[in-house]
Amino acid sequence: MNRLLFELTNSFSIQIASIDGGSLRNAIPRESVADVVVADDKVESFKKAVSDYNATVKNENSFTDPNLSVTAESISTPAKVWNADFQNKLLRAIYACPNGIYRMTPAILGLVQTSNNVARVLVKDGSYTIQCLTRSSVNSEKTDLAQAITGVFELAGATITLGGAYPGWEPKPDAPIVKLMSDLYKERYNEPANVDAIHAGLECGILGTNYPGMQMISFGPNIYGAHSPDEKVQITSVQKYWGYLLETLKRIPTKN
Questions:
Q1: Number of separate domains in the chain
Q2: Is the confidence at residue 102, as pLDDT, over 90?
Q3: In terms of residue numbers, what domain contains 188?
């Protein structure tokens, strides 16, 4: 949406009244709505530009988001629009804000180490809020990225608040608990366990910070559409992992 508004500002000198994009700080946004004002004699060419943009982004995201759609509809004229200077600064700040993968983990092929998600943009009734969720398995790198984001929005005149951080959880694929549970999974289900690492915030990061010597592993039933209105769990997999947990507890060695 920000990319589109940036292009429309340059091409049609649109005036923006509001933006409402995303929903939660810990969810990748899946919709965004903006109310804008355009000159009467440019309405048809404006709608064509939006249609052309729709074709462009559908082509760019045909593999990951085949149902992506960008449309323009007529509305009543908004009572107020943004100041032109504020509009230019905010659109550029959002554009410049890192969004997506920031760095891959050097030690593990294909694993993201640090990223940022521009999760929520709400500009309405004279105030604005931009929410990001910055993730990393390396705390110092997460702080570095947060500082970069802070710099971007401070240049636009925003007040920045940092909070709700999750400590990083560094992968330890050679930990004994990983071998124990991988062997048990193969024994019970006659197929190799899907052992992976992620850089998203998990409670394991908090536990590991307070108990640095603790071995940890996160596992569970099949979940689809996490952190979205479509989130659901495969009920048949719950019983499977409950039995797996009980047997794991039986096999954890007694501390000497």
A1: 2
A2: yes
A3: 176-251
- Name the residue with tokens 């608990």: 177
Under 8 Å CB-to-CB from 191, ≥6 apart: which residues?
185
SS3 155: helix
In a domain, 169, yes or no: no
Yes or no: say if 29 and 23 are a contact pair by the CB < 8 Å rule: yes
The tokens describing 188, both together, are 């019970």
Asked if the structure places residue 38 within a domain, the reply is yes
Q: Which two tokens stand for residue 74?
A: 């007529």
Note the pLDDT tens digit of each residue in 149-205: 999 999 999 999 998 777 777 778 888 999 999 999 999 999 999 888 877 767 888
Interval 97-117 mean pLDDT? 90
Indicate whether 151 and 180 sit together in one domain.
no
Contact partners, residue 20, CB within 8 Å, separation at least 6: 32, 33, 34, 121, 122, 123, 124
CA 181/CA 164 separation, integer angstroms: 31
Q: Are residues 90 and 214 in the same domain?
A: no
Q: To the nearest whole number, what is the mean pLDDT of the chain?
A: 91
Pairwise pLDDT comparison (111 vs 20), residue with the higher score: 20
Q: Residue 160 falls within a domain, yes or no?
A: no
Beta-carbon contacts of 176 under 8 Å, excluding residues fewer than 6 positions away, are 215
| Residue among 142, 54, 136, 153 at smallest CA distance from 95 | 153
Query: Residue 255 — very low, low, confident or very high, per pLDDT cuts 50/70/90?
Result: confident
2 SS3 class: helix
